[in-house]
Amino acid sequence: MSWIPFKIGQPKKQIVPKTVERDFEREYGKLQQLEEQTKRLQKDMKKSTDADLAMSKSAVKISLDLLSNPLCEQDQNFLNMVTALDTAMKRMDAFNQEKVNQIQKTVIEPLKKFGSVFPSLNMAVKRREQALQDYRRLQAKVEKYEEKEKTGPVLAKLHQAREELRPVRDDFEAKNKQLLDEMPRFYNSRLDYFQPSFESLIRAQVVYYSEMHKIFGDLTQQLDQPGCPDEQRERENEARLSELRALSIVADD
């Protein structure tokens, strides 16, 4: 039979009830998950707004490129269509910028501020862990002297060890109680904190897409030709493409 001695500095007495340790680990685990989710959401929101801006900026650039196309100088109807498109893309970009600014202010910044709290929380947990290690070390020291023969020098050292233990135990219990009280409160506060942000996000999206519906509705009315359905335009484009392919300069060798 092998014998495994007690770890150095570890007391035999269970100084923290297992139920308390489980409660602490559960509450801290929930906050660690919340921290990771907050970071991920902030990152995804930033990527989304960057992509939105890139999309509308690209659309404006395309319309500007079309305006500089020589075809616009030769065909007034085409110029009118591209001008209408350019106006619509610039309106879209302006509303998109407004939407992104709103999301930055009411969603991304609050996420960033909320996430800035976690380093302090993690530091408080580290201080609690350090206090627990000190508590265990001094408790083991007390137990060592309690197991020895009660001579005068041993009793003096036992008294001194107990005096050293008392403030360390009180410090740990205070830190432990504070975290067990405040971690659930902090976790539960997330709903009240984030609800206004997410409501603002939804409103910003609703306003933006309502404006997009108006913008592209106006553009459709300007571009649509009466009595010319999409199928007819497609046939006309195929006919023109066939004519181009028949040219000798683009014919296959």
UniProtKB/TrEMBL annotation:
Statement: the UniProt record of this protein carries the keyword Lyase: no
Ranges in a coiled coil: 24-51, 121-148
UniProt-listed Gene3D superfamilies: Arfaptin homology (AH) domain/BAR domain (1.20.1270.60)
Compartment(s) of residence: Cytoplasm, Cytoskeleton
This protein's UniProt keywords: Cell cycle, Cell division, Coiled coil, Cytoplasm, Cytoskeleton, Septation
Domain BAR: 9-232
Gene Ontology molecular-function annotations: lipid binding
GO biological process, one term: intracellular protein localization
Keyword Hydrolase in annotation: no
Superkingdom: Eukaryota
GO CC field: actin cytoskeleton; cytoplasm
Biological role stated in the UniProt entry: Involved in cytokinesis and septation where it has a role in the localization of F-actin.
Protein name: Bridging integrator 3
Record gene name: BIN3
